[in-house]
Every structure is written in C-alpha cells, then in structure tokens.
Recover the amino acids of this structure.
C-alpha cells in the first residue's frame, strides 16, 4: 500500500477495489470502514433479502461468509507492495451466535502472516463489540494465481 | 422456524423439493434452490451477474460458493433426514479447488456422521463437469430442538 495516502484516501481506494468493483460485494452493499497494513474492516447493513429465517429476521450464513471472505482477502491486499492476483484456498467459519435482526454487521480481518505463496488471515464478525463475536473466520489465500508472475510481497519478513 | 417446516411438509406432499427455497429470502435473492428431477437431491445456484467476484477472469465470488454449499447441506438435512427442527449451522470449512466460471453451480451433500444432536455433512459443488469440483465443504449442524442447544445458539 502506498504509505503516503491518508486514512480516508485508503478507505476510498479499498472501497473501490474490494466492493464497488466486485459485483457480488457491491450487491451485498459492503462498505469498507477500515484499511491499514495487515488489517481490513467492512460493514454490512441488515436487509430483508439477506435473511435466512423470515420469522426471526436473522441473517443467513451466506452473507457473512461472503463478507468474511472478502474482508480476509482485503487484509491480504493491504500487505502487497504491488497488485497481485490471489485466490481463497480455504475458509473456515464458526458461527458462535446468531446475528441480531436489523443491526449492521462489522467484520474485522487481519493478515497475520504472508509468504511468497500463501497468506494467512483470521477475522471476526460482530455488532460493534469485537469481544462479543457473531462469527469467527480463518482463511488462507494462494498468491500469484492466474497468469501474472509472482511478486515479492512487502509483508514478507526475513 | 415453523414456516420452513410447514413448507417442508407441503413440498413432501407435492414431491417438489424446490418449494423449500421459497421460505428463505436469502435463497431467493441468490437464486439458490434444491431440485430432485433426476431422483438425486441437488442444489443449484443459477448464474446471474451479481455472483461475480473477479471480473477479470471472470469468476464467481468464493463467498457465494460457501453460501450455496451451506444451503445444499441444509436442504439435504431437511429433505433426506428425519429432522424435526431446522438445522443450525455451527461451523463450515470450505476448500476452493478451482475458479468457478460464470455459469450455474450445482452441489450435492451427504451426511458423514449423524449424531443425536450433531450432524457432520460433506458437500461438493461443480459446474458442467461433476468430476471437476470447484469447491467442497464440511459443516457441523445442531439438529436437536432449541431446548437442547447451547445458550449461544
């Protein structure tokens, strides 16, 4: 990530890359609310279409899955020196409690280790209190997928 | 979720599993529905442009594959097992095997282990070629009534 951009500029940039330009993220209405090195945060507004149980209004697991995948992916991108294609290798989600109807969901993801080939991330989804999570996720990503040559990511520690 | 269980009873009477999806707003929005035209219970996610996660390739968003595998597991549990409650997902692990192209995705699920309270389900998704899956998943579901579930769920 270019180091000289302000927080607002970074968020706007990642909003474009990780929501506006990705049709499914845009359809979910994912809003980037945090972007710094190794860290990504997004917000998902509750809406009727995303509900799994119409009697309780609780969100389906799917929107959280897509949001956590996207947010973990964005945390990887914050570690890259130059844009490089990458793809989700696997994603585990623990649904620790139901999301509350009508409330926005916040996801916070951290890319805690990146190598030449693989990036390791974890994330939590919550309603504003990270200590009271709705879901926990762990995702790994394969770097340098599809066509383009591998570039050494900035986050690679010696 | 009695509406879904009522819908299940109706669907069984009619022999039309597709009706299960009608009770779930998210399934309708995603165009994910079960089908049993071939005698095997399958779940289909109809391709539509809002599923795209990578416009360059183009490829379907990985999150939507996880979502449809989860739905496939739920439809399987509802239709193929004697469940009296709507299964509650505890966790899911999705492995991404290939990028999914902009066409329909189909999934099947099977119960790996049925316990009294907990079920372990495996699900697999493919596109045109069933021998080339795009993603697989393992998930745990609580299938006992609410009274028996841990307070968090």
């Amino acid at each position: 990530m270019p180091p000289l951009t302000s927080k607002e500029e970074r968020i706007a940039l990642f909003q474009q890359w990780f929501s506006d330009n990705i049709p499914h993220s845009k359809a979910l209405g994912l809003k980037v609310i945090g972007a710094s090195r190794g860290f990504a945060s997004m917000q998902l507004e509750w809406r009727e279409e995303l509900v799994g149980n119409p009697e309780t209004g609780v969100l389906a697991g799917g929107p959280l899955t897509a949001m956590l995948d996207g947010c973990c992916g964005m945390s990887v991108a914050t570690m890259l020196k130059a844009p490089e294609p990458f793809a989700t290798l696997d994603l585990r989600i623990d649904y620790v409690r139901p999301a509350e109807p009508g409330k926005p969901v916040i996801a916070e993801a951290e890319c805690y280790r990146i190598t030449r080939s693989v990036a390791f991330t974890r994330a939590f989804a919550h309603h504003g209190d990270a200590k009271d999570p709705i879901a926990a996720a762990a995702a790994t990503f394969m770097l340098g997928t599809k066509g383009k040559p591998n570039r050494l990511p900035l986050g690679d520690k010696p | 979720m009695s509406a879904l269980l009522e819908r299940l009873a109706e669907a069984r009477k009619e022999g039309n599993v597709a009706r299960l999806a009608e009770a779930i707003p998210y399934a309708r929005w995603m165009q994910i529905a079960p089908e049993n035209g071939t005698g095997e219970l399958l779940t289909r996610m109809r391709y539509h442009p809002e599923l795209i996660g990578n416009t360059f390739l183009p490829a379907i968003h990985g999150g939507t594959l996880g979502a449809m595998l989860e739905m496939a597991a739920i439809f399987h549990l509802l239709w193929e097992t004697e469940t009296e409650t709507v299964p509650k997902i505890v966790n899911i692990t999705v492995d991404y095997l290939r990028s999914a192209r902009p066409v329909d995705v189909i999934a099947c699920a099977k119960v790996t282990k049925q316990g009294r309270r907990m079920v372990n389900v495996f699900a697999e998704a493919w596109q045109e070629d069933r021998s080339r899956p795009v993603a697989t998943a393992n998930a745990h579901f609580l299938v006992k009534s609410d009274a028996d579930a841990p307070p968090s769920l």
Q: What stands out?
A: Chain B has three helices and eight strands. The beta strands of chain B are 32-35, 42-45, 52-54, 59-60, 88-96, 105-114, 118-126, 135-142.
